[in-house]
Amino acid sequence: MKAIILAGGNGTRLYPVTIPINKHFLPIYNKPMIYYPLSLIMLLGMKDVIFIVNPGDLTDFRKLFGDGSHLGMNIHYRIQEEPNGLAEGLVLAEDFVSENGICYMLGDNIFFGHDLVRHMADAKIEIEKRGGAYVFGYYVKDPERFGVVEFDDNGNVLSLEEKPKRPKSNYAVVGMYFFDNKAVQIAKKVKPSVRGELEITSVIEEYLKQDKLKVKLLGRGFAWFDAGTHDSFLEAGEFVATIENKTGLMIGCIEEIAYRNGWIDREQLKRLATSLQKTQYGRYLLELVE
Question: Which cofactors go with this protein (predicted)?
Fold first, then answer.
């Protein structure tokens, strides 16, 4: 399985901060926002990643990640000319998608929780073995901001709706999706919504129609932030700061994960850490080396 991270868009909800800079480079506490979804991909053991980016941001993404070789990864890029909706990312990455399916992540979503990676691994295995779509739901107070999933009394999915005016539940579908490789062809047939976008909800709905959709609810003990608004951006940063300062361990440290995965060795990590040794981040990496 390979991974797609959607990191385009104009970041209008974070204006005026995002007028001069892509929101995915903004810091969630001590790291760029984009590190967090990438770190989860790495924790799943996935080396092949493609970023969907704006034309004007490609140079900066290459400056940040290059081809991924310094992390023992294979990182690629595709240009999204206009923010035409989340489902377009699947179409743009068509030639990258593997036979085993896709892990599709939104670059502005932050996740944390006990056994989170195990739940993601279960989804990955489910798709690789049986196909279909596997998504996650999370209880929110303001479901009208999100794609919402409706269940019957037995927990079966009845419907999905994007940003409904009258939500049928309080369960939002979060920005982490697992699809088989048929998702690309499904996305190609999606028609623009009333918002003028190719909605990822439409792709998921098609799997629901085929009875090939599984929804896993993330309950208590999990944190999810859609960091595309000022409030949630601030909340995410404060949350990461609290966890890291209490535990002494970093969340979303991609160099550490590459090292612990065995993708880079001690000397490679030391070189990366030395270039950042004047920072808290660099000192943390040096402690790992020592």
Answer: Mg(2+)
Q: Which tens digits make up the pLDDT trace of 202-222?
A: 999 999 999 999 999 998 889
> Does position 95 have pLDDT exceeding 80, yes or no?
yes
Name the residue among 73, 102, 100, 74 with its Cα closest to residue 89: 102
Q: Can you name the CATH fold of 2-252?
A: Spore Coat Polysaccharide Biosynthesis Protein SpsA; Chain A (3.90.550)
Q: Which pTM value belongs to this model?
A: 0.94
Confirm if 123 and 216 have CB atoms less than 8 A apart: yes
Q: Is 183 exposed, middle or buried (0-12, 13-18, 19+ CB in 10 A)?
A: buried
Please report, for the chain, the start and end positions of each structural domain, with discontinuous segments joined by +. 2-252
- pLDDT tens for residues 34-60? 999 999 999 999 999 999 999 999 999
